[in-house]
Protein: Ribosome biogenesis GTPase A
Amino acid sequence: MTIQWFPGHMTKARRQIEDKLKLIDVVIELLDARVPLSSRNPMVDEILKGKPRLVLLNKTDLADPQVTAQWVKYFAEQGLPALPIDAATGTATKEILPRVKQLWADKIERQLSKGINPRAVRALIVGIPNVGKSTLINQLAGKKIAATGDKPGVTKGQQWIKVGTEMDLLDTPGILWPKFEDQLVGQRLAATGAIKEELLHLDEIALFVVRYMVEHYGAALQERFGVTDLPEDMENVHEVVKVMEAIGRKRGAIVSGGKVDLDKASLIIIRDLRAGKMGRISLEKPQ
Ligand code: G4P
Structure:
């Protein structure tokens, strides 16, 4: 199934973000560490132009640490500092404020040299739906969550969140979509749960996951499901389906007559991946 891509959505999100950028010192771009480029809005570089930016690779608890380290290097080579975090538990989130202040250091210096007390740095968090923006904001704001009041250009209902006295945060205005008209991007996002599974067929997503697992994490797949005889030729769909059936059989996803219920098997595979039950898996590597 093809997911429709409406350029109108993008134009609207772009306008909403550009509106806010005037008020912003630093942008925090939140990506999914398991699929950093696929979970990125395709126009983000253009929209953010010259704004200082910190990339956060979220959900590192679910991602392959070696691959995450490769991504940090990849972004550094693009001139973007990147920090792996886990917003849900707060791992490394304490690093964010110092990193943001570093990006704003010149301005802070200038204000201090003029004898002005530097104001709180204003940061905009951008990220596609489900990447963990609200979780991160709650984590950063902690119990002291407080709105800092209206600022010009801020639409009703959108409030600045105070992080101590040194940073004010704003969530993505509107919805920033990923590039899900690209089939591979769509499959990766469906596998990680960024796209609702109703939008793609379960067996299609599971097929993608099993194929990727056999190619990159064969041992983890064998260990989780006790399947042996992984196929050599992953281009052959029938071979991949055989692995899915073997998994279904091991996990009791059987319909009357003893046949494997492929939808049920697919759901097991996808849920296990998302819950980290096959280990820490990244579904995209830097080229
Ligand atoms: P959004 O505002 O960007 O749309 O995302 P949100 O914070 O709502 O997070 C989306 C899902 O991702 C939530 O799970 C959240 O718990 C989970 N999440 C966020 N950060 C992390 C992380 O660092 N690690 C892991 N493993 N998960 C993270 P959910 O399924 O919607 O709800 P629930 O499972 O927490 O109940």
Notes: DSSP finds eleven helices and six strands in the chain.
